[in-house]
Amino acid sequence: MQNPKDVMNCRVMSIKNDQIIIIPARMSASRLPGKPLAEIAGKTMIQHVWERALAADIAPVYVATDHEDIAEVIRAAGGEAVMTRADHPSGSDRVFEAVQTIDPEGRFQNVLNLQGDLPEMSSDIPVILSETLLRSGADLATLVAPATSHEAQLPQVVKAVVSWDEGAAPAVGAIGRALYFSRAAVPTGASDFLHHVGVYGWRREALARFVSLPPSPLEQAEKLEQLRAMEAGMHIAVGMIAEAPGGIDTAEDLSAARSRLSAKGAD
User: Fold this and answer.
1) Which domains does the chain possess?
2) pTM
């Protein structure tokens, strides 16, 4: 009988051979310029995210950036960074350029796109994202978490409408299919809402198709690029996690993250 540890090692090696993690990070942001280099508990924000992605230990990790200072921070920490154009309209476009540069031969067929402004991201998130993509067979995968009633009313918190497999009540680890995403509190009349976590697992061919498409009407109305994929008929699988990590969009978000991570004694 094969040793279970050997089976797990083979599985992990297979994952590492098939997929790559890319974290897009740009220097200019309308609400918080330079935020990838913002210091939080003794490290830059982008280094926190890179370390948490690395801790998942499921794939090589690269930071895709438009600024040499960001690349230098990652390289100084022992990581890999790739320079990309400054004029990309979205993180998905930056990720696609990066994977084409890193792997022109097409060895990596699954691309995990994490966000560079999630310094409190659990290292479980890349794992669950990968499992959701692999188990569902979808074009792309993303994650959701329960939203509080307060979050449901905030336009900066994106809500997801999901059809769960077998109609089961969503629990951590559940997988479903995305029906819609909105900044409004949807679906109307619901007592429980879902907070969309903006990380994506892509089949490489689906990512290539996505970045070739023009912005779609719903995408432009909601200012949510994942709706372009939905309008193009792509299957978006959704995995459930327990809690959404805090994103950093404003100076207030940054201050709160600094307080939380300093109190925890961030590694």
Assistant:
1) 1-117 (3.90.550.10), 122-244 (3.90.550.10)
2) 0.90
